[in-house]
Structure formats: C-alpha cells, structure tokens
Amino acid sequence: MDRVPVKEEDCFKREVTEDTKVKEEPQMNPRVGCKRKLAMSSLPCVKRHKAELMCSGVRDKTAYVSLQRFTEMNLLSDYRFLEDVARTADRVSRDIFLTRPKRKKYLLFLKNRARKQGVYLRLLPSGFSKRRENSTVFDHRNQQFCWHVKLQFPQSQAEYVEKRVPDDKTINEILKPYIDPEKSDPVIRQRLKAYTQSQTGVQILMRVENMQQNLIRYYELDPSKSLVNNLRNKVIIEYPTLHVVLKGCSNDMQLLHQVKSESAQKLGNGD
C-alpha cells in the first residue's frame, strides 16, 4: 500500500496548533490554592471557583470537624478564633462611639433608685468582669430591684449565681433550692452535702466594701429578713456576694461588729 505523502507545511501547522492548545490550558501552580479546598488550583481556577460557588477564599472557622479528624491544628485554630472574638468584643466595649447614652442614663438611674432605698450602689467601668456579669435591673411595674446575687459556699468550694432576685425575697428563700434537705435540687444537694447534712446551721456573710486593702471584714446578714433590708446602709459594688458559711467555720472571717466590740473593750481596759 502506497503511503500518502505529507507536506512539511502541514506538519508544521499541526505542531503549531498543538503547541497553542497546550499554552491555552491553565498551568497548575502549586503555590496558589483555594483555602476552602485541598486541591491545588491555578489562579484562573480559583477565580472561577469563587464566582461559581460564591466562595470568599477564607476557611470557615466554625465548620464542623468530627472527633476522628480533630487535630492539634484544629485546636489551635479554635483557640485563635476565641481570642479574636474576645478581642473584638473588648474593642467594641471600649469604643465611646458605640456606647449608648441611654445605657449610661439607665445605670445612673439604678444608682439613684438604690440610694433611695438606702443602698449605696457602686458601678464599675465597662471593661471589668463584674460589670459584664451584672444582670441587676429595676422592675418598674413592682417598683423593686431584681438583683444579680452570687452565692459562695466555701466549705464545699462551690459557687452559684441567682439572676433577677426580687429584693423583697428573704435570704432563706434564696437559699432553699441549695441547702434545704428536701426541697433542694438533687445534684446541688450532693455537691453541698456538707451544708445539707450539717446540724449547726449556717451564717450569711457579706464583705464590707470601701475598706483599706489589708483589712477584710464581713457583715453578718439576717437570713429571715428580705434582701433589701439586709443591703440597706451598705456599699454594694455591682451586685451582692453572699458567703454561706457553716457555723463554727468562720473563724478566719472577721465580722465588723466583732472588730468594733474588741476595740471598745481595749479602750475600756485602757490598752
């Protein structure tokens, strides 16, 4: 069979055409890749991917990762993400242009209303943790405070928070869900076993504010009286913190009236 003669010109055209096709195909560049996909892509592929899937090119930091695939890199990424959130929240809280004047007026209103009840309420700047935690509000309908109350149980090394506690509620009523042997929550009752099984009873103490740094004294509150009666004529920084102490275990917590009586006794003895 005779071969068909091929002109050199046709061969040259075919080689040029194939070479042009190769040049038109996007070259894979290992340095460029979509951050949301593991496959490496060229710049045109990345642009097409972003346009088709509305992809920003930034990895989704909140995407679900199964426990089997969770690595130290994921842990580090989550830690940095939480740091960024905290940094953003702190920056917003410090921005004077984002601070609402109504909020400042409301805080001033709380201080004035507390003063009318004989409670000297002190509020901290917005950067402090107690300022962020405080959920105290004033109920206009019932004309009473609903306090944010922190309860500390040192003998069990436990701490709880009660939010929106009406100021006419007694301390005994506040503590009932915690240390009442029958009506307390079973989980909390187990945690506060030292209190629920105690036969000696408890003392309710609250730290005296606005004293010298080296002096730590406590008021002893009456659990049968309402919260507002116990807070009257006292300085409260943001919200009251009540120390629930077993009787006989508060030797290292000096009471204010004990200090006064000891001073009077020394003066009477001429010391």
UniProtKB/TrEMBL annotation:
It comes from the Eukaryota. The keyword Phosphoprotein applies. Residues 109-253 form the BCD1 alpha/beta domain. Keywords: Phosphoprotein. The keyword Phosphoprotein applies. PANTHER family: BOX C_D SNORNA PROTEIN 1, BOX C_D SNORNA PROTEIN 1-RELATED. This is Uncharacterized protein RGD1308723_predicted. It comes from Rattus norvegicus. The lineage of its organism: Eukaryota, Metazoa, Chordata, Craniata, Vertebrata. The gene is Znhit6.
